[in-house]
Amino acid sequence: MEYYIYVTNECNLNCSYCSVLVRKQGRSEPLKPIYSKSVLFEFIDKIQQKYNDNTADIYFFGGEPTLEYGVIADIISVFNRKTTYKINYVMHTNGLRLDSIPKYIIKKTDIMLLSMNYEKIYIDKHLSPYLSKIMNNINYVRRIKNFPIIGRITVSPDTCLYTECCLMGAHFDYIYWQLDNSTYIPFEIYKTNYETSISLLFSYWINFLKAGVFLRYVPFINTINHFLNPSDKPSKFYCGYGESMIYIQTDGSCYACCDEVESRQHYIGNLEEGVEFPEINLLNTICNECKYIYVCGGRCGRMHIDHGQERISEFCQLNIFMFSLIEEAIPLIRKIILKFPNFISNFNDPLIAYTEYTP
Q1: Structural domains in the chain?
Q2: CA 4 – CA 246 distance, rounded (Å)
Q3: CA distances from 8 to 64, 167, 172 (A)
Q4: Sheet holding 86-93, edge to edge
Q5: Along the 359 residues of the chain, how does pLDDT read in single tens digits?
Q6: N or C: where does the chain have the smaller number of CB atoms within 10 Å of the terminal CB?
Q7: C-alpha distances in angstroms, 1 versus 37, 52, 196, 228, 293?
Q8: 206 by DSSP, 3-state: which?
Q9: Are strands 2-6 and 245-248 parallel, antiparallel or unpaired?
Q10: Rounded to a whole number, what is the largest CA-CA distance in the chain?
């Protein structure tokens, strides 16, 4: 199970594409958790026992969690007891304050998801100090503990995914990109930009693969893995919506997704009373008619609730372009794997499950 704990609703960035930060909508959730950490432990413990799950992934989320190291320390402290399941601590951060993070928190962290803000990388077409700040902070963390760091990029019409992956890829263990879904974007412009970037990036990626170098670009890896090991048609969303993700707000309310918290659209319960997941069968959605359903697993559960068919179709077009591009290359990829059989385990890397399966 995955528990995304809002450490704070405050942030030290103001990303225009952010769809998570509730203060933007004028909501009144507390800045920091007001519930007892013991209540949090009891809630998670009950969920783990109920679903007989041997791993609890606890995400420090927000807002920007590194603004409240005290809250993080309190959460770690209350879970510092023997449990029947393993606990993984995942830091979901923008990376700007990693150089001030207490060392014991770094040592407790198992995985880091670091979201890059494309708006901050350049100033007047020149690289800004923001990028070097992030990279120096990553190096600081790695000197204390070398755990996997996944770089996340939000793709907008102002983003060149190809250049950003080339620019930042070497500094992260994995790269994942997410389509901007926070605002309406003129689709034809977005589509042209994204398809051009994906074509260039996939060519770049596969040329490295031919040379025996495996670049961990998560959307490519996930897609190829599903083509190499096709599964039955799924009835549940691969992203975990309605099944394995719980977002815990600072007031103790719980949601199936981090988006649209202000409308309580995805409200599923609270720490005191427990939660009840929404029952959504993927086979009852438009995805049932798509030949790539076993590849993308419905993309995003909340998308099917919050968006109309036109908007869903736009996201699908972008991903289908990537799927078809990769599908065409599968015979070549199989030949490369014969030459480099160690790649088989790379395509089955369990760490790629710490992002969404499809952008």
Answers
A1: 1-147+242-278 (3.20.20.70), 191-236+280-359 (no CATH)
A2: 6
A3: 7, 30, 25
A4: 174-179, 149-155, 111-116, 86-93, 55-61, 2-6, 245-248, 253-255, 267-270, 274-275
A5: 999 999 999 999 888 777 666 544 555 788 999 999 999 999 999 999 999 999 999 999 999 999 999 999 999 999 998 899 999 999 999 999 999 999 999 999 999 999 998 788 888 878 889 989 999 999 999 999 999 999 999 888 778 899 989 988 889 999 999 888 666 668 888 899 999 999 999 999 999 999 999 999 999 999 999 999 998 899 999 989 989 999 999 999 999 988 777 778 899 999 999 999 988 889 998 899 999 999 999 988 888 888 888 888 888 999 999 999 999 999 999 999 999 999 999 999 999 999 988 98
A6: N
A7: 18, 10, 36, 26, 23
A8: helix
A9: parallel
A10: 57
What the block records as the tokens of 243 is 């099944």
- Residue 153 makes CB contacts below 8 A (sequence gap 6+) with 115, 116, 118, 159, 161, 164, 165, 168, 175, 176, 177, 178
Let me know: does 127 contact 42? Beta carbons within 8 Å.
no
Name 171's Cβ contacts closer than 8 Å, sequence gap at least 6.
135, 138, 151
Contact by Cβ (8 Å): 300, 356: yes
Give this prediction's pTM: 0.94
Size (the chain), residues: 359
Closest Cα to residue 177, out of 90, 98, 118, 245? 118
Q: CA–CA separation, 195 vs 161, rounded Å?
A: 10
Structural tokens at position 8: 């704070």
**Among 318, 319, 266, 328, which Cα is nearest to 296's?**
319
**CA atoms of 122 and 125, how far apart (whole Å):** 5
